[in-house]
Specification:
Blueprint (H helix, E strand, L loop, with lengths): L9 H12 L6 E5 L6 H13 L14 H7 L6 E4 L16 H10 L5 H8 L10 H11 L9 E6 L6 H12 L5 E7 L7 H4 L3 E4 L5 H10 L4 H10 L3 H8 L3 H18 L3 H12 L3 H20 L12 H10 L8 H16 L4 H15 L4
Helix pairs in contact: 1-2, 6-7, 9-10, 10-11, 12-13, 12-14, 12-17, 13-17, 14-16, 16-17
């Protein structure tokens, strides 16, 4: 991965180049920002630039020297990848156990879609984490000197998924790092990082791509201009746009579940809402949280429709057709409480609450909220 391979983010790239060119690389760097903004690609490009032995005059790795070729093959001896995994049968799990799978994932999904990583792990119900065993393994491997480069580089994806004991173990490494070690962390939710680790990093914000940039990225991937533009206007990031462009079954299913929820709730069909909650819960924990996020978005879009400006909407054709009829039921008397209800439900399910109970509680409360007009 080279800087030239990554669209946009020119200011971030310039700042990263300057760190390397002046040899003022922080021992712990954090690239933070929304998902699907190319942060991990920037981290990979930075690692390649650090190790490149023949950097180009325009400030990029050459892509041809032995170090660059090793980065391209994911086997650079002084580069370590650390990322969330799941335990198998309760056994200790470290990133190296999933190295080959992760390499394939990075190549296929360079914008690092966590949902696709769950699919790769073949466990959509799991909540991948970075376990204490990973901290022990990093400590062991980093205790060796860099072998062919000036610096060892740890590319750490999603430090917000540290187990608490893992974070505490790595805190000392971040506070008192080996002189030849650089941590490059990439976070979608920096508020979830242990504050003592977060405070010891030098942070760079990577902004989300705008609609035109997302459309250009999709076109570069082979999508026609009309499809790319339509998906970019609906999506909030590249990963979401790619799902929409691929006619995501999940999005269609979420739409059908949302419509069913609102219609049954308006009709006060409690028995059918119980069946609905069982069907949605069967999706699995992570997909249920994604569905709740989808519900929150459609509620907001319905409220925005009161403004009468279609340019503010990010709906596909089916969603727009439904929302034109539905939006009068979302108003200033219930929109805040309804969004808070979905936010609370997502938090509870993320905390391993019983999804069927949480969803049925949501459905019953919607019965009362939807009639506030």
């Amino acid at each position: 991965m080279r800087f030239a391979d990554i669209p946009g983010h020119e200011e971030v790239k310039a700042r990263l180049r300057e760190m390397v060119d002046t040899d003022r690389i922080p021992h712990a760097l954090l690239l933070e920002g929304p998902a699907g903004s190319g942060k991990f690609a920037l981290a990979r490009a930075l690692a390649a630039y650090i190790h490149c032995t023949d950097r180009t005059p325009d400030g990029d790795s050459c892509g041809k020297c032995p170090s660059c070729r090793q980065h391209q093959a994911f086997n650079h001896i002084d580069t370590l990848y650390s990322f969330p995994v799941v335990k198998k049968s309760g056994k200790p799990a470290v990133s190296d156990d999933y190295a080959e799978l992760f390499h394939e994932f990075m190549q296929k999904y360079p914008y690092m879609d966590i949902d696709r990583w769950l699919e790769s792990l073949d466990n959509i119900n799991a909540q991948p984490q970075i376990y204490v065993e990973e901290g022990n393994e990093l400590l062991r491997r980093l205790s060796y000197m860099a072998r062919q480069s000036k610096y060892k580089v740890v590319l750490l994806w999603l430090p917000e998924r540290f187990k608490e004991e893992t974070a505490n173990k790595l805190l000392k490494l971040v506070e008192e790092p080996f002189a030849d070690t650089i941590f490059i962390m990439v976070s979608n939710n920096s508020r979830g990082i242990l504050p003592t680790i977060y405070s010891r990093t030098q942070r760079i914000m990577v902004k989300r791509y705008d609609s035109d940039e997302i459309a250009a990225i999709l076109e570069s991937m082979g999508y026609d201009a009309d499809t790319a533009s339509q998906c970019a206007n609906i999506a909030t990031n590249v990963n979401e746009a790619l799902k929409i462009a691929g006619v995501s079954k999940e999005r269609l299913q979420y739409f059908e579940f949302f419509v069913s929820l609102m219609r049954k709730a308006y009709g006060r069909k409690v028995a059918e809402l119980r069946e609905w909650s069982v069907a949605v819960a069967a999706l699995g924990r992570e997909p249920v949280m994604q569905f709740i996020d989808y519900c929150t978005r459609l509620v907001r879009e319905s409220f925005i429709m009161h403004l009468g400006d279609p340019r503010l909407l990010t709906l596909n054709a089916d969603e727009l057709a439904f929302t034109r009829k539905f939006f009068p039921f979302i108003n200033e008397k219930n929109v805040i409480d309804m969004i808070a209800l979905f936010d609370d439900a997502r938090r509870d399910i993320a905390g391993n609450a019983n999804a069927k109970i949480v969803l049925f509680d949501v459905a019953v409360r919607i019965i009362m909220l939807i009639r506030r007009t």
